[in-house]
Amino acid sequence: MQNNRLLNVVASTMTLAAIPALVSACGGDDDAEATQPVPTEPGGNSSGATQAPSQANHLMVDLDTLRGSKNISAEDKPTQSCVQLNMFAKNEQIVFRVRIYDPTTGQAMDNTTIDKIEIKFKNGTALDPMKYGPHPKDAPNESFWTQSFVIPEDFPTGALDFTVTATDKEGRTGTFTPIHYSPSALLQILDKVRPVAAQ
User: Which of 1, 23, 89, 129 is 20 to 30 A from residue 155's alpha carbon, by CA?
Assistant: First the structure.
């Protein structure tokens, strides 16, 4: 009986000793620094969690692009216009659709709280301020911000860099800047020309 108890104690000790090695093998860190308690922050917060700022000042900008109806023939409009795209031929219409979110409430912002939203291309072109309204006009629909650009035939091909900057009536701003990597940039202008169609 005593021998069995001794074997059980030894086995338990070996199991406990093996735990740090198993943790380390799974990506854990068993050094002394990792076992130190999290210092208590002023105010008694010892959770180590990042504290949200009391006042969020940067608006959140959500954006997508689609092909508009300009220069699309009547028979092709049902299948080729209002289609989400990021590659456009010249003479095609890029439609920018945007929603702005309040960083404090997470709610979408409309024209009662937003002062202006501006789209600027890297080449210096600035589009007219975006407009807010329902799309389509008849229900069922949704309201968001839109602006469009018809690509001229002499417009450069390749990546189209741009920014979208929103400003609300309290002076807060937010800017959308797409990740720039030319082969897979958010907007690409193709070396193709769509014929001008009668509207």
Answer: 129
Terminal C-alpha separation, the chain:
98
CA distances from residue 104 to 28, 51, 149 in whole angstroms, order as listed: 36, 14, 32
Tokens of 182: 């030319």
At which residue do the structure tokens 């180590």 appear? 48
86 within 8 A of 188, measured Cβ to Cβ: yes
Q: In whole angstroms, what separates CA 127 from the centre of its chain?
A: 21
Q: What residues pair up with 26 in beta bridges, in sequence order? A: none
pLDDT in tens, 120-166: 999 999 999 999 999 998 999 999 999 999 999 999 999 999 999 99
The residues that bridge with 188 in the sheet, in sequence order, are 87, 159
DSSP output for 103-142: TTT--EE-TTTEEEEEEEETTS-BPPPPEEEEESSSSS-E
Q: Are 94 and 149 in contact (CB under 8 A)?
A: yes
Report in angstroms the alpha-carbon separations of 161 from 13, 19, 36, 177, 180: 63, 53, 48, 8, 7
User: pTM to 2 decimals?
Assistant: 0.71
Is-contact 149 35, C-beta < 8 A?
A: no
Measured CA to CA, the distance from residue 34 to residue 165 in angstroms comes to 43
